[in-house]
Amino acid sequence: MILIKLGGSIITNKEKPLSPRKKIIKNIVKNLKKIDESIIIVHGGGSFVHYWSVKYNMHTKPMNYSVRGVSTVKNSMIELNKIILDLFLENKLNPYCLPPTDFMAGNDPIIKKVKEIQKIANAGLIPITFGDALWYGQKKTYILSGDRIMTYLSKILKPRLSIFVLNEDGLYSDLKSKKLIYEINKKNPIISENKMDVTGGMTRKVEEASKISKMGIDVFFVNGNKPERIVKAVKNRKFEGTLFRGKKNA
Length: 250
Ligand code: IPE
Fold this sequence. Notes:
Elements: E1 2-6, H1 8-11, H2 22-32, E2 39-43, H3 46-55, H4 67-90, E3 95-97, E4 104-105, E5 108-109, H5 111-122, E6 126-130, E7 132-137, E8 140-144, H6 146-157, E9 161-166, E10 172-174, E11 179-180, H7 201-213, E12 218-223, H8 228-234, E13 242-244
Helix pairs in contact: 2-4, 3-4, 6-7
């Protein structure tokens, strides 16, 4: 099984609030069709939803956020999710919509429910879940990022590969020349900060990718503008992107 996160920066236009990039999503979907293993998709919110979470000052820490904010974030995530589901269907893939409320209790994944996702994928459906505003308990809510979901699903389902699809080639050792890091070693990569992103942007992705690779699972960062690279990563062909090599106890 392959776990794939479609980052908000690739599926939406970062420069413009609330704008999906349908053509790019469609191209990604067409390439996903070339994968013959079962896949599970997680998607982010990008400018579509960070716009609202910034406006309502909502974060990943459970707190008493504005109920209006929670409703609005949830609603816009559903809207983006619907666009993605439609594009999968139109391109003859069979998505299975799976909001994170289906497998999360507070901020813990429900192991039995997560294991069920694997069965859904094995049956030929493509489970699609997403980062969301979630109920925590005692009047508190929080933002669960899609990147964090990647770590939960990796831990419980042990995919063969976890792939983060980005709007960049991968991680760069030098931001000016965009010199690509092909494989992460001990040196810390340079990460640009994005203040518009309440779930931590690239920093969070690197954090979660490192955690997943420490479970012994290879993690790839690839550019979704060149979606054939996703297929290459899966088929073990000459790969372009950044690899976090899976190493247990690293
Ligand atoms: C969106 O998920 C979470 C919300 C703000 C509801 P992500 O945090 O995974 O989104 P991207 O991929 O970074 O945009």
